[in-house]
Design a protein that fits this description.
With 382 residues, the chain is of the alpha/beta class. It has helices spanning 18-32, 46-50, 70-84, 95-105, 128-137, 146-155, 182-192, 214-226, 244-256, 270-276, 291-298, 311-314, 329-340, 343-360, 363-377, and strands spanning 6-10, 36-42, 57-61, 89-92, 114-118, 140-143, 163-165, 201-205, 232-236, 261-265, 279-282, 303-306, 322-324. The protein folds into two domains: 6-169 and 362-377, Rossmann fold (3-Layer(aba) Sandwich), CATH 3.40.50; 177-360, Glycogen Phosphorylase B (Rossmann fold, 3-Layer(aba) Sandwich). The chain is elongated, with a radius of gyration of 22 Å. The two termini are 19 Å apart.
Length: 382
């Protein structure tokens, strides 16, 4: 029987995102296997709220991303230094919490191994501090997809033997279509959208931010409406406060759109919406992984995504979904139309996608992969 691991997970995010969804899933998976898990995150954050009932310890960090904010910075480093004395592995997610942990563990005679998962495709500058961080402080850098791994390799900051790929996974007890009363779920959402019971529904269900390119999906929907394609379109998510000009333009466009192209706002029960929909669209061409796409596939909703980034790794084009030329409204619309007007194709892709999630993207596989990594890095307790 393997010894219990003591794991410290850090997260700087206040709101909900793919990064926090990943961390919630990993924390629960580790705790359910009997490991001692501590999650350090901003007080009152979405992650903390979601983990309130989980069998783990929660600690409050300030994580004020300003080097001039001396008091909260010192407080965070002191707390992290205390927590590091009590764990076997520390696992960070973003730049700022990684730097705080690096400061907290520096100078220790036997520093706790540090794992850093990169969830984005932001460029990493090759200055001296980053060279120290990636080559001396971080024990192992993990990429959530081969796309992110390639991006890391291009920085030439991380040696090949200090990095690896671990694909994200989702909790299939949450995204479980077998729990759904499908006729009732489909009827509920069509009524909510003012659509007839037999309507084909196409949804975007992710964060509504510029890099996800939700406006491309809206433009494709307008093109299809002008062509007489019989479908209803919905965008689900929260509009961010920033950038203000983009936010204001998106609001104006959504308010002025055709009744068949609707803004659904924040949807609490994402699995239900995805189960009710017939097609899922994610136009982002710089998607690091594509967690929302995997969630759609788990609910047997075939995806249409840009043929780049992590989406191109998650989807097998023509088998589990359709890929379109990045940035092309015309091609995106054509692929959506192909699924809207071909029910047998939708059903076939839905079955294949559902099976693919079970084989490649289960939370249990992800947790096991991280446990194997933790065990390989673990320093024997005295």
């Amino acid at each position: 029987m393997r010894a219990t691991l003591r794991v410290l997970l850090t997260c700087k995010k206040q709101g909900w995102s793919g990064e926090t969804a990943f961390l919630e899933s990993l924390a629960r998976g580790l705790a359910e296997r009997g490991h001692e898990v501590t999650v350090a995150a901003p007080a009152g954050s979405a992650l903390q709220q979601r983990l309130e009932s989980a069998p783990l310890q929660i600690e409050n960090l300030h994580l004020v991303h300003e080097v001039t904010a001396v008091r909260p910075l010192v407080s965070d480093v002191r707390l992290l230094r205390k927590l590091l004395r009590e764990v076997d592995i520390v696992h960070t997610q973003a730049s700022w919490d990684t730097w705080l942990v690096a400061m907290a563990r520096s100078g220790g005679r036997r520093p706790v191994p540090m794992v850093r998962t990169r969830h984005n495709l932001k460029p990493v500058r090759r200055h001296r501090l980053n060279r120290w961080l990636y080559q001396r402080s971080i024990t192992r850098t993990v990429a959530v997809s081969q796309t992110v791994a390639d991006d890391i390799r291009e920085t030439r900051l991380v040696e090949p033997d200090r990095s690896e790929v671990i694909l994200n996974g989702i909790d299939l007890s949450v995204f479980d279509i077998k729990k759904m009363k499908m006729s009732a779920v489909r009827a509920k959402w069509r009524k909510h959208m003012g659509a007839p019971p037999e309507a084909v529904v196409v949804v975007y269900c992710s964060r509504i931010v510029p890099r996800k390119q939700p406006e491309l999906m809206m433009e494709a929907a307008r093109r299809l409406r002008s062509q007489g394609v019989d479908a209803w379109f919905g965008l689900a998510g929260i509009l961010p406060a920033e950038p203000e000009d983009w936010n204001a333009r998106m609001r104006r466009e959504m308010e002025a759109d055709h009744p068949r192209i609707q803004y659904l706002g924040f949807v609490k029960n994402t699995p239900e919406l995805l189960a009710a929909a017939d097609v899922f669209v994610l136009p982002a061409d710089q998607e690091p992984f594509g967690l929302a796409t995997v969630e759609a596939m788990a609910m047997r909703c075939p995806p249409v995504c840009a043929a780049s980034g992590g989406s191109g790794e998650v989807i097998r084009d023509g088998v589990t979904g359709l890929l379109f030329e990045p940035g092309s409204v015309k091609d995106c619309a054509a692929k959506i139309r192909e699924l809207v007007e071909n029910e047998p194709l939708r059903r076939r892709m839905a079955r294949k996608g559902y099976a693919e999630v079970g084989e490649r993207f289960r939370r249990e596989r992800m947790v096991q992969d991280y446990l194997q990594l933790y065990e390989s890095l673990r320093v024997t307790r005295r």
